[in-house]
Amino acid sequence: MPLTVEIVTPEHVVYTEDGVRLVKAPGAMGELGILPHHAAFVTTLQPGELRIVKESGDETVLAVTSGFLEVRDDRVVILTDAAERAEEIDIARAEEARRRAQERLQARDTAEVDLARAEASLRRAAIRLRVAESRRRRPQRPSTGPPPVE
Ligand code: ATP
């Protein structure tokens, strides 16, 4: 039996699909690969890339921030502060967030800077940019029309 996957943020249900063959998630202790018939467990997530592969071969990549992942009875539930599909990521916004965080980190000696907060913000921005970039390298859905004009 394939997996059912649900991704929920405080704002909305971001993703809910069945027929999933594999979930790759950024677990707190490293990357997790979850296949059907996985033993029940719960873990925390760190900000990173979440990859969902359907039985059809369709793949969805999302940027997630911190949260929890639970597996039980072929159902994977991900509760996270934020999750964006690659195509939903506002690249300019992430670049701006990265720039702000870098500025704060550079000003660490001269200003009151919350280093942990700036580092976390930098990490989120870097992940968003990486996920958005992975889409440009490899389109998520096979195109049925003519190739895009570059
Ligand atoms: P920013 O400083 O740009 O708000 P952030 O890392 O502080 O970035 P979060 O607190 O992680 O943002 O997210 C707040 C909300 O904004 C979430 O709903 C998240 O999905 C969304 N969000 C944040 N950055 C982006 C982005 N670059 N593209 C699309 N949505 C984003």
Characteristic terms for this protein:
binds adenosine-5'-triphosphate, Single alpha-helices involved in coiled-coils or other helix-helix interfaces, 9-stranded mixed β-sheet, alpha+beta, 26% helix, 2 domains, elongated, 39% strand, 2 helices, 150 residues
Structural notes for this entry:
By secondary structure, the chain is α+β, with helices and mostly antiparallel strands. The chain has 2 domains: 3-86, F0F1 ATP synthase delta/epsilon subunit, N-terminal (ATP Synthase, domain 1), CATH 2.60.15.10; 90-137, ATP synthase delta/epsilon subunit, C-terminal domain (Single alpha-helices involved in coiled-coils or other helix-helix interfaces), CATH 1.20.5. Helices cover 26% and strands 39% of the residues. The chain is built from 2 helices and 9 strands, in the order βββββββββαα. Strands 1, 2, 3, 4, 5, 6, 7, 8 and 9 form a 9-stranded mixed β-sheet that branches. β2 (13-27) and β3 (30-34) form a beta hairpin. α1 (91-106) packs antiparallel against α2 (115-137). It starts with a strand and ends in a 13-residue tail after the last helix. The model has no long low-confidence stretch (mean pLDDT 91). It binds adenosine-5'-triphosphate. Residues 11, 65, 82, 84, 88-90, 93-94, 97, 121, 124, 128 line the site of adenosine-5'-triphosphate.
